[in-house]
């Protein structure tokens, strides 16, 4: 049912998930520090990422641990996104054709609960946000997969207006 203004709850975009990634390039103490920082910033246990291919020019072999990531969903994702968007500037070029976007945070010390430690150093992180409309799961589910009509797909303009209204920010 729609109201007089034409609003329908199934048209309102939602944050499906947020992936926060820190690429270190090698294992050892630096990777352990990155894991600790990421867990403190997100409040969730991190998962190590491994090299997909051997890159001799960087001294990386396939299967070596090179980074860490956390996937946030639901309220945790929305809370983290609200905090992270205050620290970043988002431009139109950072959006893909389906309304998802990515941005970087140069220093972990910008987060409220983080302080600079000379023994640890400063780490940056990448944040990727997946936005969709309710019901988008039908294109990925195991049984009875269906395509989503074009009028229900999220696009760049819908994603930008959602961010500007919901998170009180301006996309450049």
From TrEMBL:
GO terms for cellular component: ribonucleoprotein complex; ribosome. GO terms for molecular function: rRNA binding; structural constituent of ribosome; tRNA binding. Keywords: Ribonucleoprotein, Ribosomal protein, RNA-binding, rRNA-binding, tRNA-binding. It comes from the Archaea. Residues 65-140 form the Large ribosomal subunit protein uL5 C-terminal domain. Pfam families: Ribosomal_L5, Ribosomal_L5_C. InterPro entries: Ribosomal_uL5, Ribosomal_uL5_arc, Ribosomal_uL5_C, Ribosomal_uL5_CS, Ribosomal_uL5_dom_sf, Ribosomal_uL5_euk/arc-type, Ribosomal_uL5_N. Part of the 50S ribosomal subunit; contacts the 5S rRNA and probably tRNA. Forms a bridge to the 30S subunit in the 70S ribosome. This is Large ribosomal subunit protein uL5.
């Amino acid at each position: 049912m729609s109201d007089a203004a034409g609003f329908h709850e199934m048209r309102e975009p939602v944050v499906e998930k947020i992936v926060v990634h820190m690429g270190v390039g090698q294992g050892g103490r630096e990777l352990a520090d990155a894991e600790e920082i990421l867990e403190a910033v997100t409040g969730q246990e991190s998962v190590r990422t491994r090299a997909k291919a051997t890159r001799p020019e960087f001294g990386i072999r396939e299967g070596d641990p090179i980074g860490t990531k956390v996937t946030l969903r639901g309220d945790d994702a929305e809370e983290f996104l609200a905090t992270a968007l205050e620290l970043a500037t988002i431009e139109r070029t950072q959006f893909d054709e389906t309304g998802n976007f990515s941005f970087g945070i140069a220093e972990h010390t910008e987060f409220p609960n983080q302080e600079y430690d000379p023994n640890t150093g400063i780490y940056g992180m990448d944040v990727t946000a997946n936005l969709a409309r309710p019901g988008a799961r039908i294109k990925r589910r195991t049984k009875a997969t269906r395509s989503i009509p074009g009028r229900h797909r999220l696009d760049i303009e819908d994603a930008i207006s959602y961010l500007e209204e919901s998170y009180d920010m301006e996309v450049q």
